Amino acid sequence: MATKTVINEPPRDIITPQVQASPDTSSGPNKTLSPTPCILVVGMAGAGKTTFVQRLTAHLHSKAAPPYVINLDPAVLKLPYPVNIDIRDTVNYKEVMKQYGLGPNGGIMTALNLFSTQFDQVLQYIEKRANEHSLVIFDTPGQLEVFTWSASGTIITDTLGLTLPTIVVYVLDTSRSVNPTTFMSNMLNACSILYKTTLPFILVMNKCDIIDNGFAVEWMKDFTVFRQALSQETSFMSNLVQSMSLALEEFYSNISSVGVSSLTGAGINEFLAAVDKGRVEYWDYLARRKKISEQREREMKEKTIDKLTELKKQSGKGTKLKLGLDLAVQPEYEYEIEDDIYGVGGESPDEGDLVHDEDLDLDES
Ligand SMILES: Nc1nc2c(ncn2[C@@H]2O[C@H](COP(=O)(O)OP(=O)(O)OP(=O)(O)O)[C@@H](O)[C@H]2O)c(=O)[nH]1
Ligand SMILES: [Mg+2]
């Protein structure tokens, strides 16, 4: 007999609009991460994201492993799952449309942009609560542009990626992807999100109760099968789609895919196994991020040293000059540069000589 799990509404964590202090730059790839994975559920409008979150939430509650759920869709009328943070508690989407004179899509985008300015509060709650939960789940609106084109997508994915092992979950409406051209356009969307975020990626082929996802798996595995399906297409797009599909081979090899029915619950265990795999892959992502930020830091230091060297050359010997370092993330400091700034007896280094930070003798005034 089927058992029904009763889920109580959790106490809500509220994000309040407040004036932002300067951004916290202490959070970096080196801080200790919670092991709780976080999934960012994205996909086209109506693909079944919210129903998928509902199914997953119910499944985890039935296993006594409740998730921490965050709704980022400001326009949803009713949520079918218990939510811990809801964007609608912070931003009134209808008011945003009215005040900024926007249509529904612009309203959703702007509401999310406004909410993302308070994302540090969301992160604080997540960091505090993650260890008591098995999974952190984000439900998002159907506007994929939010994650590909708007600033909020970058803020959300980048900061989450440094807080928890984060995985992007792309929900595909399998029943509406039986046409190879539609399938391809969906895959291109998914691909753009993967390359924008570079996070581990799971493709959820949803609505498998309507149609088995076997055809899509075949298309991804074997290009000739996909080409055969395309040959039935008479559309002028088919040549373009053929060449695109070759380019997507690399994308397919980098992602996990799983067939799910959010209606019946089929495939949820396989999905959780894919999350475990994504959590392992995440450490590669973090190592890449660390390398990039170290590289940026090095470049910034080199730029500063170049500037100092240049100014020293222009200033002549024995003079003092004031300069403001134009580092974008730091407030402007004024340094008095003494004659012997290089610590090499008043001599400027030859061009190409590397001057290390510790060699600089700067008095902060
Ligand atoms: N048959 C079937 N229908 C589903 C499944 N998942 C979702 N649906 C239906 O698809 C429709 C859209 O589902 P939602 O969960 O609202 O989709 P969404 O992606 O959250 O939509 P937006 O938030 O508007 O972008 C609803 O009518 C759901 O009942 C599924 O696995 N099988
Ligand atoms: Mg939804």
Automatic annotation (TrEMBL):
Amino acid composition bias (Polar residues), ranges on this chain: 17-32
This enzyme's EC code(s): 3.6.5.-
SUPFAM superfamilies: P-loop containing nucleoside triphosphate hydrolases
One function term, GO molecular function aspect: GTPase activity
Annotated Acidic residues bias: 348-365
GO cellular component: a single term: nucleus
Subcellular localization: Cytoplasm; Nucleus
Protein keywords: Coiled coil, Cytoplasm, GTP-binding, Hydrolase, Nucleotide-binding, Nucleus
Classification via Gene3D superfamilies: P-loop containing nucleotide triphosphate hydrolases (3.40.50.300)
Enzyme class: hydrolase
Matches recorded under InterPro entries: AAA+_ATPase, Gpn, Gpn1/Npa3/XAB1, P-loop_NTPase
Domain AAA+ ATPase intervals: 35-182
Disordered, as annotated region: 1-32, 342-365
Oligomeric and partner information: Binds to RNA polymerase II.
Function: Small GTPase required for proper nuclear import of RNA polymerase II (RNAPII). May act at an RNAP assembly step prior to nuclear import.
Family indicated by similarity: Belongs to the GPN-loop GTPase family.
Name of this chain's protein: GPN-loop GTPase
